[in-house]
Every structure is written in structure tokens, then in C-alpha cells.
Amino acid sequence: MGAGYVVAVVGATGAAGSTTLTILEERKFPVRELRCYASERSAGKTVAFCGDSLRVEQVGAEAFKGVEIAFFSAGSAQSREYAPLAVKAGAVVVDKSSAFRMDPAVPLVVPEINPHAVKGHAGIVASPNCTTVVTVMPLKPLHDAARLRRVIATSYQAVSGAGVRGVEELRRQTLAWARGEALKVEFFPHQIAFNLIPHIDKFAENGYTGEEIKLVNEVRKILELPDLAISPTTVRVPVFTAHSIAVNVETEEPVTPRRARELFADFPGLRVWDEPAQNRYPMPVVVEGQDDCFVGRIRQDLSLANGLNFWVVGDQLRKGAATNAVQIAELLIR
Question: Are residues 141 and 255 in the same domain?
């Protein structure tokens, strides 16, 4: 693999982990040696990287000797157990779980927005929730131009955001429907095929779900706006890949739709698709496989003087997870 770094990917067989391998290869990240880890259930499988077939090993306490950069994509429980061990062994961890995101000592980074935060790491850098990444990308240029006062965000989240089991459930139910068979519910709390489920993660006493609370807390931390008013709703939809978010913002200074389009178009990682007369607006089938987040349906809020509505779509496996994590690693080695 040539000169570069010793890199580990934990959770290499999952949706986010396998996409991380793809992004590392696409972006030509300088990998000298790649080690792939997973749970006992997936150990022994092989994954492809740069033309090689690599065996996946079971992650353990001794896995990180000599590792310089470790990507964790295996969930918060494994991150809490093994990330500190990786740091102790000398690695810098880029963690995609929720384990450390709100730890004051751990930077929560979207490289286009707060690259400076990486400098404060003590061995672990957190990558935000995929919905947070897609939502916060267009918020940053609006805040810089006009100061955000309030955000209302309603997400329409693809099943792959729940991992390979979510994808399998939608596919299985869709095929069963086509054959006229009963639709079995095994993974999601309700039928997902041809349905919407306004419930992602556990409910809190205040009626909000864990996914919604993540969105609030993480957006505030990334933008360094601890008091920003945010009202979230998260919905699981029968789409395989790419999350969509309907966003309403109120700003201190007025922003016209024309000005918003200019701000979005000039911001790295955003692309404007906003030609209603030609039915041109972001959709999951268009955005899947892209690293940029696409913004459209940009229009004035009819109920509020300094209000703006827009629609943003991002591939949550790429920019929402793997691409953002690899971009963080690129910051670390730069």
C-alpha cells in the first residue's frame, strides 16, 4: 500500500465501515497498512481495498498496537470500550458513534464548518450524527451572514441510517408486498415499506426522541451556539439511502432567497439545485453516492419577516458518516 499511515477501521463490515473503506480509497488517503476489525460475528469475512482482499479480525484489547489513525464505526458500546485503548496505544481515534460527541474534551467536527476544533483533541475526535451533518451544512453560511435566531428541522431519514438490518427489512417487506405476502416486522417498530415512522431512537420524558435531542445538542456544539433555539422532528422513511431535511430558519438580519442561494453556492460541500419551473430540486435518488449536500426549495417564510425555508439532502453514509470522518483524518495529518 506504499508510504503513509497505519490505519484501523473498526466495524469494517457494516454500512458506515464499508463506506469508509470506499472513501479512503477514493480520496487516496495515505494508507501504508490497513487493519479491519469487527465483532466476533463478522470476524473471518473479507473486505476489498485498493485491489486487495483483507481479512476482518475480531476487535480486541491488543488490536491497536502500531495503529496511528483508527476509524470507529461499530456503535457507541464498542467505541466506549475500545477507543480509549486505541488512544493509549498511540492512535488518534475518529469516532462516528454517539459515545463522545457531547464530551466537552472531545471536538465534534464538520471540516467545512469548524476545522479549528480538531486542534483541541486529546486522542479522540467525534464525527456528528448523520442527520446533524446534513442539517448543519447550510446553517453555517446563513449564520455567518445573518446570525441564526431559531431553527425548525424535520428530517426524512433513509433506512440505511439504521444499518444493514434496516436496508434488509425494507427490501424484504417490499418484495413480500410485490408477491402478495404478509409483511413481517422484525427490526423497525412498525412496517417501513410504504410507510413513515415518526420515531427514531428512544423517547424521552419530554416526548422527543434520542435522535431529535442529538440534533439539537450537536448543532449547538458545532456552531458554538449553546443557546440556539432548535425544534426537531425526525422521521424514518422507506428510502434506502440519503437523508432529507426540511428546514425553517429565523435570522437576526433578513436574508432573501436570492441571497441564500448565493451563500449556499459559495459554501464548500454544498450544491444548489433550485429550479422549481423545471422540477429541479434535491431528491435522494439524485444525491445518493455524492459527497456534497444539495439544497433547494429555497423560499421566504410566509409567516415570519426574517424567516426562510429550504430543503437539504445528503448521502448519510458518505458525507453524513464516512466522508466526514475521512475529512477529519485529513485535517489531522495535514
Answer: yes
Residues 6+ positions from 189 with CB-CB distance below 8 Å: 197, 199
How many CA atoms within 13 Å lie on the side-chain side of 209? 15
CA distance 315 to 242: 4
Domain membership of residue 200 as a residue range: 132-316
Lowest mean pLDDT among 39-48, 216-225, 299-308: 39-48
The count of structural domains within the chain is: 2
For the entire predicted model, the pTM comes to: 0.95
Mean pLDDT of 243-270: 98
Q: What is the mean pLDDT of residues 205-223?
A: 97
Domain holding 24: CATH number? 3.40.50.720
138 and 276 part of one domain: yes
Q: HEC profile for the chain? A: CCCCEEEEEECCCCHHHHHHHHHHHHCCCCEEEEEEEECCCCCCCEEEECCEEEEEEECCCCCCCCCCEEEECCCHHHHHHHHHHHHHCCCEEEECCCCCCCCCCCCECCCCCCHHHHHHCCCEEECCCHHHHHHHHHHHHHHHHHCEEEEEEEEEECHHHHCHHHHHHHHHHHHHHHCCCCCCCCCCCCCCCCCCECCCCCECCCCCEHHHHHHHHHHHHHHCCCCCEEEEEEEECCCCCCEEEEEEEEECCCCCHHHHHHHHHHCCCEEECCEHHHCECCCHHHHCCCCCEEEEEEEECCCCCCEEEEEEEECCCHHHHHHHHHHHHHHHHC
Active-site positions? 130, 243
**Residue 1: per-residue pLDDT:** 45
Q: Are 234 and 284 contained in the same domain?
A: yes
Q: What is the bridge-based pairing of β-strands 229-236 and 148-157?
A: parallel
CATH number for the domain that contains residue 156? 3.30.360.10
